[in-house]
Structures are given as structure tokens and as C-alpha cells.
Design a protein that fits this description.
The chain has one helix and 29 strands. By secondary structure, it is mostly beta strands. The strands form two sheets. It has a 22-stranded antiparallel barrel. Strands 2-3-6-5-4-7 form a six-stranded antiparallel β-barrel. Strand 23 and strand 24 form a beta hairpin. The radius of gyration is 25 Å and the shape is globular.
Amino acid sequence: MTLFGPWFFALAAPTPLAVSTGDADAPAEEIVEVHVTALSGKSVYLDRGSDAKLAVGDRVVFFPAGAPPIEALVRSTTKQSARAELSIDATLEIGTRGEAHVDVEGTKIEHPPWEKPIGETSPDLPLLAPWESTTSKEREVEWHGRVTTSVDWTEDRQDGDSYWLARTGLTFQVENPFHRGGELDVDLDLFARRADVAGSDDEDESSLRIDRLSYEWGGTRTEDTHWQVGRFFSKEFPEFGILDGAEWVRRLDGGDRVGAQLGFLPEPTPEMDTGKDVSAALFYRWVRGENEEFSLGTGYQKTWHEGDADRDLWVTNLSWRPSKTWSIWSSAWVDLYGANDVQKSGAELTQYFLNSSWRFGTDKGLGLHASHFRFPELLRNEFDQVAASSIFDAENTRIGVDGWKDFGKDFRLSARLDQFSDQDDDGYGLSLRGTWRDLFLEQSRFDLGAFYDQGVYSTVTGAHASLSKTFDLGQLSGTYEYAEHENDDFLGSQGTLSQQSLRGSWQKSFGRDWSLSLFLDRRFGDELDAWSLGFYLVRRF
């Protein structure tokens, strides 16, 4: 029940919106609406990227139906997509809406004054004279990044347990680090956890985790070959997983790209131990359009677990923006099984994701999302506690639509409908949300919504209300939520559980480099009595 982020209470923004934090020297912030297009462990892939000003280190708040908001940090970006990492172990669905908090000032490039004299000009010369570029040896080394520190504490009074987590993260990029061009990318996390569980031994754990440590060079306008070595997610095919190794990409005439990668796959555990799983992959990507409005990639990955042949995976992904108001993203994973596999044979569609969104003018939009999942047969311990029968027949398919409509400048109505089916059952969920700006107070947002989710084992019905207000001393936010759980095949008091939560937070920026947030969470109701509190401190450089 530990909560890992104090910005759980951001509200839906009608359009990308500049947000004041009450500090004239604080960086201006813009809210960009995003949707989940794919999932891999704690990694969440988004349908917006650097073209929408998303950058490494930006925070994203997701709003899953029938659950508290969940925070993530952007770890990598491409032009039209981004990868974010969830702050907690949580389950999101394809198509889940979120809000990326973009540092607008951080996207601006400050150009020094022109110092070189122009010299004599002639009317016979073109207006844009040839330019002289500086070499890597002449350019300075540039650093930018952030340090984050957070502490979260939870007391479960229902069971007499308590938990706390302290985390310090360091993320930075060094451009031209060796005066040879390229970029060094580092992302480190230091964790300390403690769990005091009634009737059991206390648990203490601390670890230093390297999420990313890589160096890349090439791939510029003047260099057709791109290299990346270290620990990283592939920008071309993140579906292949985080890699300890090297990747080579060659840009061909017309912009198409061909590439290969080789290395180890770290284990999907908090420690991210490496060395047991070897991965080799080849891929090709077709692109069309000046800004790669159309991109179709296909790739093959072969893995070995402790020396034994393991996975044969074929991945195809598509990104297409027919217009500024319409986008499509899709990814299909096909596992190929052979004589060494026990439960499966031939080819099987293991995962499929689709997300498409349309904007009709500036005041309304519509989205479509679909997903399909089956467990692959692997030697690698990719999934915890999966029964053999589940690997053989478990599957989950979802399809849904969502839409929004602005009524004037200050009110937005949003709705979402999902339908799912698995090997045993099916169900659906829906939600409705209204968002008002400056309804009760200036520089405020009020959010009111209701949701219904019919699952395999329970049905959840609930409502929530949130209010956020910006003052000179920062931003205050609060949320109340009520949910009633109807649990199937449970007798007595557990057949129906009514649960409530109250959450509040305060956020403040101190100049352009520091920001602090505090949060308090109270959960109560049937078989639920818990408190959580914590803080989140950011230092940018």
C-alpha cells in the first residue's frame, strides 16, 4: 500500500496548459495529454515524444479507472513516443490516459550573441551564406540532469504493519563528454526499504540500481551510423527489453534504418542482475515523410538462457500520423516455437497493442485502444509464479474507446469504455469525468468523476472529487474517493467492502532549480485502516 509519489492529485487539463507554480523564477510548466501504448514491467510507452516537448526526467501522472493516480518519470524519448518508468509496482491498461508535466523553459535553447563579423557582402551572394560548423574538439562539454530524493512511510493499522521507503535518484546527460561528440546517459537509483510485519521477521533491504548507463555517438545529420553501448533501451525497438551490450544502426538513403544489437538481458528484478540471458537481434525500419510521419519497423530477437536456446521473437511496430490531429501506434509480438519447446509449437501472437487518437478541432477528441496478451513459454524467469496451465491457455484481450469534449474554455467532459475477455470470463468498465477550471476559485481546477469496473473476481463502483488551487506559496491539491467492491464467491463481511480515501499534497518550486512536494494519504473503510505520508525533493542542474 506504500505510495511512491506526492503528485498523485493532478487533474485533467482541457488542452496543453501552462501552469504557474506561484514563483516568478520557477520554470514554466505545460501539461501534455498522453496515452499508454505499450507495457513492459514497470516501463510504460507513450504516444507523445520530443515533438510534444517531452524530455528525460519529466514526470507523468496516470489516471487508471477505479484506482488512485500513479506517477512515472520519463526515461527516454523519440520524436513521437517516450518511455516512462512507474514509481510503484502497478498494473495499467493500454490506452490509460495520463498527463506529462513538461518544463517549457527547459526546452528552449539559449543562443549566445553573434560575435563573428559578417564582413563585406555582395548583392550577387545568396542571403543565406555558407555556415561553418564547430568540431567536437572545439565544442564545450555540457551537463544537465536532476537529483531526486523521496521518503514514503505507511502504517497499516488494520494488520499492525508499517513500511517505509527512502530513494535517491540521479539522472544526468553529458553532451560531448570526451570532445568526440556523442552523449553519456546515466540513471542511478539508491533504495532503502524497511517492513515491520506483525507476527513475522522484520525486513530491511538497501540496494544501488543502475537503470541506465550508456554512451552513444553518431546518427546525426552528417553521420549515418549510430552506436550505443552500455545499459540502455533501444530507441528503435524497446520491445526487445533493456540491454547490457551494444547496438549499431545505419541510416540508408531516404531515411530507412537497419540495425543490430548484442548483449545480456538483465533479470526483471529490483537488483537487475545480468549475465544469464544473451540476446541478439536484427531489425529494419521504413520511414516516410519529412518528420517521419510514417514509420514501420520489423525485427527478430534470439535469446539464450544459461547457454540453452530460449526465445525466438518477431516484433513489428507501426507509428503513423496522417495529420496533426490523427495518430496511430501499434505493436505485434509473435513467438516462434520449435522442437525444444514443451507446451507450444508453431507461431503464436503473444502480445498486440493498438492506440489511435483523433482530435476534431481544438475542443474534442476520440481515442481507440486494443490489446492482446498471452504468456510465452520461456526458460528465462520473466514472470513470477506463473502456473504451467496459465502458460498454455491464459490470455487477455481488451478493446476500448475514450473521448472528451470541451464546453467553453473552462469545462471538459471525458468518458471511457472498456471491454475485456480471458480464457474463463469477460467484463467491462466505464468512467465519466468532468473538469472545471476556476469554478470556485481563481487558478484552480475541480474534478468530479464516477467509475464502474466489472472484473473476473469483483465489481467496483465508485466516485471521486478533486480540487487543486495555486497560491503564491505553492499549489495545494486534495482528492476524496469512495469505492464499493462486490467480491464474487466470498461469504460474510468480505462479500461487499466499502472503502474510502482522502489524499492531499502541497507542491512548491524554489527558483528554477529546486522543487518540493509533500503528501498525506488516509485510507479507511471495511478491513482498511492505513496512513501514508512522504515528501519528494528535486534538484535540477
